[in-house]
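User: Can you model how fe (ii) ion sits in this protein?
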Amino acid sequence: MAANTAATAKKTETKTESGQKKADAKKNQQESLLEKLFIDMLKDMYWAEKHLATALNKMHSEATTPELQDAFEDHKYVTQKHASRLEKIFKMMGKEPEGKKCEAMEGLTNEANTLIKETTEGTMTRDAALIIAAQKIEHYEIASYGSLVQVAKTIDREDVARLLEKTLWEEEDADELLTEIAETYINPMADNESDDDEEDEEVEETTATSKEKK
Ligand SMILES: [Fe+2]
Ligand SMILES: [Fe+2]
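Assistant: Here's the modeled complex, given as structure tokens:
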């Protein structure tokens, strides 16, 4: 009886082993759903980075403080590098680089445009608004790349995870720099601006125009 039990246990074990082997083989041949999701996330970020590179041009031209202008200019080049890095990652994954519209990035850059319309040119309040908009964008990128790194590790692509991690750190650096610029002087200076300043500027402009006409 005991011998029979041992034989049955051995049979079950062999069955389980072959089942596992079959599952492993299937896994090697087929892309898992998580891998498919990962590729989809890469497409989303590829579109987002390219869209952001263009948006940063506008944010740069609408900023007043040289430090902020430089930060936007530098991050535009970093953003282009992120798009190229994603192209490399697509190739490493055996895919052609492809973008898929990222609704979140489109919404975030639309919000930046709205803030530009709602603030006055040349004010620190506009610079403060641009920093807020840019930090929301960076936080979105940080969340996205953080997730991509984790998924890359789960699907056993440490090589890809390492590259994505580089981008993640660069997004974190950009966010920290924006915080520093805002806290050092843009926000305190914006706090000294009021509607009266805008009205004074409008009066000055009207006076200058009427003098020119005379
Ligand atoms: Fe980026
Ligand atoms: Fe970024």
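A couple of observations from the model: The domain at 33-191 is CATH 1.20.1260.10 (Ferritin). The longest helix spans residues 158-191.
User: Helpful, thanks.
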